[in-house]
Design a protein that fits this description.
rod-shaped, mainly alpha, 138 residues, 6 helices, single chain
Length: 138
Amino acid sequence: MKEKLEEIKTKGLEKIKNVKTIAELEEVRKELTGKKSELSEVLKSMKDLPVEEKKTIGMMATEIKNTFLSNLQEKEEEIVEQEQIQQQYIEETTFETKPSLWQRIKNSKVVRAIRYITKIRIVIQYPEALPEGRGENN
């Protein structure tokens, strides 16, 4: 039983070490400390052991679970810090582009008004160019 706990501990610490994202970390957290984890299975099977072994195995299992939780917390802080550094780098390296002078003039109210006036003038001067049903005869 002790060997199995040691094996669970080494595998769990290795999984925590290889985690790269918060989502992966949550998956590993469920896998290591959840209700269906190997550690929980060991704790459930303790009912068949003698009292002295229950104490030692129980203490080892609790110690392993606390180790997992502390390592998970440290890894989460490390990942969050890395994400903040990445976000800061992205913010420092991207620049806001302001619209150019031509874009500002092109989209100004005066230019839009001139365009509409031009369209109206064309309609008034050349009514035969309109599609059927929009001329003066209707």
